[in-house]
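Write out a sequence, fold above all:
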Amino acid sequence: MAKRENNRIQTPLREVVLISLNELTLHESIDLLNKSPGELEKLIKDLYAKIDDREPDVQAYLEIADRDELLKSAREFLDRPLKGIPGTIKDNIQTLGFKTTCGSKFLEDFNSVYDATVIKSLKDAGSPVLGKANLDEFAMGSSTENSYFQTTRNPHDLSRVPGGSSGGSAAAVAADEAIYALGSDTGGSVRHPAALCGVVGLKPTYGLVSRYGLTAFASSLDQIGPITKDVYDAALLLNYLARQDEMDSTSAAENTPDYTRGIDRGVEEFKVGFPNEYFGEELDAGIREQAKKWRKTFEKLGADVVDISLPHTEYAIATYYIIASSEASANLARFDGVRYTSRAETNSIEELFSLSRDEGFGPEVKRRILLGTYALSAGYYDEYYGKAQKSRRLIKRDFDRAFDDVDLIAAPASPTPAFEIGEKVEDPLEMYLSDIFIVPVNLAGIPAMSVPGGEVDDLPVGLQIMGGSLAEKKILRAGYAFEKTFEN
């Protein structure tokens, strides 16, 4: 049984002589190193052994730290809370000592010039960086097939995608090539790959975690979040990630609680709503059956489970892709061939801009820049971007009204399990519909988490738990209780 010690839940270690230490969760690793600091070297050795074994197939990483240098750094962090346990970072987050390529040819040789706030926070807490994870170029994609460098594969079935855009981060955790990872979530890019890879992915309230050092995709939607092996680890990491930051003007001025405190209190006092709009024809039949088990699990845990409506959900995909693409069009204007790394050979300034962008950006990024530029252009701004902002307000109002009646909302994180590599890459609209259940959260700015919700045809699927603004503690409590009780 788990026990409470100094307001922290202590879980008995699994029989570590029978497993590699890289298979431990973050909190199990901390407990082990508190008792046996000398095991840090074996933990890191086991991580690299797993990377050597699985990385040629999974291809989760774009860059990996030198193991001797990492071990040296980790030893210096042993007296800090995270005990020198390294983390894996999505490659659109600035990290000193590594490149930050954003999965793009444009930045293939760009070396980070500073640490993002989240990286500094993790290092201060005692967690060095193991490596940088692959992603869809500039975080634009749902499958991690849009990376310029390589296609990451789902560890559960190498013929299938890991989800996106944080597919490398989720695949690394699922394959035990990482203890934990960071991703970014603009339209579900933490929760979607977490669901498809069978791990936990938390998207915090907009502004709770600093975006300073995250390469901007859509500034009003972007949020960094942890990808972990269990819910407790997500809470533990959020303790170090959630902080006000003067370098981020959207940073929430909130006194953040200890997210692990009370995580085991259960959900008996909660009312959990299942939205009708998330269970339409587009939902895979196998996931629909799993959802029945999700309801029964919450009922077994003592929650009041009800049906609710979020009537403007049908407009979420169109709204999201207009707003996100418009903001991407503005944010990516800085990549012009004058700065950064990729530059076309020409003597004309005008050609330098156009040729550099043509050569540096991949097809999906170009598609979204064109869509966003059109939506913002004279004569179309009100018709497209203006209407999308009005629709966004209606979607947020749906959530606000729902949370007047329920504590949490539960729904699938993805309409299908992981699809085959190449299956949707030629049909952008079909690919965009993979995000149908996750983009509303970003439009509303609220927190949500995907937790493993069983399997369909031997592939993981995810339960998404959503809460009102700054309701992370409720979400984590519900996810923790569900995780301990759910049976596939």
